[in-house]
Amino acid sequence: MTREEIIKSCLIFATGLFLMAFTLGPFIWMIWISLADRADFLVTGQVEYSLSNYRQVLTAHSLHFLDYLSNSLWISTITAIIVTLFSSMAAYAVSRMRFPGRSVVPLLILAMSMFPQISIVGYLFEMFSKAGLINSHMALILPYIAWTIPIALWINMSYFTQIPLDLDKAALVDGAGRMKVLYKIIFPLALPGIFSSALLVFIACFNEFLFAIMLTIDYTAQTLPVGIALFQGLHGEIPWGNLMAASAIASVPLVILTLIFQRYIVAGLMGGAVKG
Amino acid sequence: MASGNFLQQYEKGEARTAWIFIAPLLLVVGVFVLLPVLGTFYTSLFLDVSYLPEQFVGLRNYIDLLSSPDFWQALRFTLAYTVAAVTLEAFFGVMFALLLNEAFPGRGMLRVVILIPWAIPTIVSARTWQLIYEYTYGVMNYLVVNSGLVSERINWMGTEFGAFWALVFADVWKTTPFVVLILLAGLQAIPEDIYQQAKVDGAGLFRRFYKITLPLLMPVLVISLIFRTIDSLRMFDLVYVLTGGGPGGSTRTLSYLGFEAFANDNFGMGSTISVVTFIVAFFITLVYLRAGKFSEQLK
Amino acid sequence: MQATKITIKSLAKSFITFRGKVDVLKSIDLTIEPGEFFVLLGPSGCGKSTLLNLLAGLEKPSGGELYFDQELVADAVGKFSGPFERDISMVFQSYALYPHMTVEENIAFPLTNLPQVPTSDVMRTKVKEAATLLQIDHLLDRKPAELSGGQRQRVAIGRAIVRNPKVCLMDEPLSNLDAKLRNEMRAHLKDLQKRLGVTTVYVTHDQLEAMTLGHRIAIMNNGVLQQVGTPVEIYRAPVNQFVARFIGSPTMNMLSGELNEEAGNLYLQADALKIRLPAETAGRLKARNLKKVTLGVRPERLYVKSEGEPDLALPVNVIENVGPEYLVYSFHQQGQIVVRTPDEPTGDRLDLSLDAGHLHLFDEQGARINL
Fold this sequence. Notes:
The structure holds 3 protein chains of 3 kinds.
Chain A: H1 3-35, H2 41-44, H3 52-59, H4 65-96, H5 104-112, H6 118-131, H7 137-160, H8 165-173, H9 178-189, H10 191-207, H11 210-215, H12 224-230, H13 240-260, H14 262-273
Helix pairs in contact in A: 1-13, 3-13, 4-7, 4-10, 4-12, 5-7, 7-10, 7-14, 8-9, 10-14
Chain B: H1 5-8, H2 12-43, E1 46-47, E2 55-56, H3 60-66, H4 69-101, H5 107-113, H6 116-119, H7 122-132, H8 139-146, H9 160-188, H10 192-200, H11 205-233, H12 237-242, H13 254-263, H14 267-298
Antiparallel strand pairs in B: 1-2
Chain C: E1 6-17, E2 20-32, E3 37-41, H1 48-56, E4 63-68, E5 71-75, H2 83-86, E6 88-91, H3 103-112, H4 120-133, H5 149-161, E7 167-171, H6 179-196, E8 199-204, H7 207-213, E9 216-221, E10 224-229, H8 231-236, H9 241-246, E11 253-262, E12 265-270, E13 273-276, H10 279-288, E14 292-297, E15 303-304, E16 312-315, E17 318-321, E18 326-332, E19 335-341, E20 349-353, E21 360-362
Parallel strand pairs in C: 3-8, 3-9, 6-7, 7-8
Antiparallel strand pairs in C: 1-2, 1-4, 4-5, 9-10, 11-12, 11-14, 12-13, 14-21, 15-20, 16-20, 17-18, 18-19
């Protein structure tokens, strides 16, 4: 080995170790506390491990954890489905059809995504109050669709443009309407892209906090992030064990989803970021 | 053949179908983004608090806001926080991306592991960091005290300095993976033979990084930093959980300040803050885009 | 089935962008006879593909009218029938097979879009028929990715003929095949068109394909029709320099210069090269009173002359043996001159004679001078 190679190997080893500690540290800490019977064991040195925190979180009705979880799942899933449908239709039109305004629409939509959430949430609150939608699933689904659809549009566009235009022409000549071209030809071929945009939308909705805390009031519509942010023990002191167990349950599905579909997620982030 | 030709060149049926395809998206974005943005601007011109009738006050809210020390404090904090977080993310991002671009046993696993912080909901990670920063039994104080870095535990959330860096660390942890992913894609686009050529030309490891990798990576780095900056400027959830804007209101971001106003039923002022937040974010994005063009020209 | 006649009247197409207006087609007039194999030939960017897309209904004209038989299918104002309404089929250069469908599903796809979808039995029979005709019936369960280039090509053709369209359009269908397969498919295609008798419009940039396939050829350049005619007509009497150069391989030799009369003979002085024109040509040219002309001679119409005074003499620069014959290259200020000869020339000079019946003369604008 040359000197340069030795230096390089050491650097790789050190950075790799640091990366592991950096990314996994807090995550391991979360899991650790969720399994411990007390959070102050670093000081007291006394600890026992069990799944009792998880059991409490999942069974205690007063904590409403399962309500938050199901709200989150429903809202994120429905949003992802609708966004996928709308954004792929629009991406199809913008990337493959000729009409006045085709180059303006994507930029306009991108510009819309530049507005910080705070600059729309106040008005949404007033709007939904008048419509009686506050504290309903709809109060989150509607803004979530609007908030995530620009990125989905850009990801889908970047995938659609890779499909040869001749396929559309052939299908039109063969008598398929535009809608049929979309679901019979484009959709199956761009499935990885559509899947990754749907996945990113789902994760974004699952994580969203500002809309959720402003537009909901209680466990009938509050999502997991709100539930966890407002998580209070019965006696004032934060019940760290329960909280970390809830956090673990909230994040582990996402972590697993991410690990399994990391290829799609990375591709989606690239499609949205680099081309966008 | 007059100017009507521009529209005439499109086939009407096709154009109509295209607009039908786009309509749902435009409708949703129009009603739930554009309309609220305009509505927010409109509301910002009113004295709109729940216990009084609405009253048009023109730019009064803006004048009040700009003369309030809370606003300047929040602006200063938001900018300082963004600069600190984005700088650290760029540093760690480049470091990790370089690592993950090398061939070594275990790379595949590390490429997956790096995504974990990204996948964890911000609120969850905020809660986790809250526990890490806990004064008595948090792991952060355990580490800094036992390693001898400091003699006494730090009250992270009790001091301006501590709260600032606590927020920055938590943000860096959560968002560095995003920067790493984009940089990694950028690194993979640099052809291997350039490095071979540089080696042949006698450039050492660090020189190769400084003279080849970094300049070629610059455009991608700028893009990822634009995204990160835009996000940082609107940061809300970490502050909500970790500091609640404290101590003494020192860690309120602009978004948080707006949220407080809304939460206190002061919709006029909340809207004003929202508009100003947007304007600030908009100008910083413009500056960045200029810088991005500049770096492309360098290339 | 009665074949369809296509009538194109002053058809024009331009694209308007913010950078300005681009005229891709400038007033095309053309009639394609029922059952004809019609070839559109031209270099890339000449507008031939745009014309095909206009016929297909994939693009809308900005001027003129288009008729299938008596029926108006498109004009610039409002009338526009889509591709399926026109009952056309199309074969693409990229084949445009649907990658996620089997061969059978690919060929059956047009049938599934009919207003009255045939039963699956009928569909299967029709697909089978088309596939058998093209000798791909053993591949029906495969996906396009599992096929060779030639097989994909046949699937694309199968998809185009399965529903007996009024008109079949082909956009450079052979150019993605290797040379050997291309020759094979060319013959196959010609035979198929004859059997089906469907009006076919075929776009290509390859003059050999055009010559061998077309009943008639239309040569286009810069969005303008240059010449329409049978392959023989065009080869024998190209209307201008562009057509003359485009048809035939190797390319027709072109020499421009001034006409001089000397001792009863008429000479063309092309830079350093002095060419004596045959007496018959000279006589007719004199009557026209022209100063400058361009002389065009195909390589096989330059005859090696072993004795007597040559009409022109060339230095020999390169000799290529292409099997049955030799190509002799001579470099000249105006480009290279190629001579096609069955015997290998000896020496570094080539004496040549011209034949009045095989000379092409063009005026300063490049248009043919008919003598």
